[in-house]
Amino acid sequence: MLERRTLFPNVIEMNYQARRRFGCCVYLVFDGEDWMLIDIGYEDTAREIIDMIRQMDFPLAKCKYLVVTHADADHIQGLKLAQEMLPQAVSVGHPLAKSALADGDRILTYAEIPAQGISINLPRIHLGKTIDEGDLLEVGNLKIETWHTPGHTQSQLAFRLGDLLFSGDNIFRDGCVGNIDAHHGSDISAFIKSLERIRDSDVKWLLPSHGPAFRKDNRLLQDTIDRLEKYQHMADFGTCAVDWPLLDEWEAELSKQFDPELV
Ligand SMILES: [Zn+2]
Questions:
Q1: How far is the CA of 72 from the centre of ligand 1 (A)?
Q2: Residues 150-166: tens digit of each pLDDT
Q3: How far is the CA of 210 from the centre of ligand 1 (A)?
Q4: pLDDT on residue 155
Q5: Ligand 1 centroid from CA 176, angstroms
Q6: What is the pLDDT of residue 222?
Q7: CA of 23: how far to CAs of 87, 112, 147, in Å?
Q8: Which among 44, 108, 141, 173 is least surrounded, fewest beta carbons within 10 Å?
Q9: Ligand 1 centre from 232 Cα, in Å?
Q10: 263 C-alpha to center of ligand 1: Å?
Q11: Neighbours of 183 (CB within 10 A)
Q12: Centroid of ligand 1 to alpha carbon of 259 (angstroms)
């Protein structure tokens, strides 16, 4: 039997458990014999992760949910294999994640980024149930609350368990956020609202989908919000910006003769 290395009571993270990096964070939430997984990661590590869970003495038949934080390939590519290994578990995610996975949408899921030569296998995946804001997942006596936190992508969910927030790709320990990309359904205004919600909540710990867990720090959150506020008015993220004041300045200046002395 493998010793269980809990991060917090009722919570194991499989990269910490293995003491090496598999890919995205894979959280196992348990109470008694019941458990659920938040994201499974890539296909080539899914079997090893489930084998470790078996060796930690969790009955495989007691996996209640396979949870999808959002539909990105690095979070869910292994889900089909996990579903085969854990057939009684209900796969859950946001309705927009369900449709992206059912359609095998290779752009929205980042399975295909032609300009960077990225093309990975993405099996068609069926989610058994959709969940959205306020829905509760019950594992033993635990109640895990679903938050809809769009921004990185429209289907992004986070999950609250007491003082802990499984915060998905909303914010990482260094203040970075999940990729902002128009083709991915990113929305900077929605992202800011999701970050403000996390800032204003009384959760104490953030357990992100990439990198280490960390104590919620409102200064870090505010710095990130301020940065995204700027992005809304900058060309850096193209069509994700709400405006670009330079174009208004240019328009005003076009009515005058260009004067090299003034610029
Ligand atoms: Zn991610």
A1: 7
A2: 999 999 999 999 999 99
A3: 7
A4: 97
A5: 12
A6: 98
A7: 23, 18, 23
A8: 141
A9: 22
A10: 42
A11: 10
A12: 48
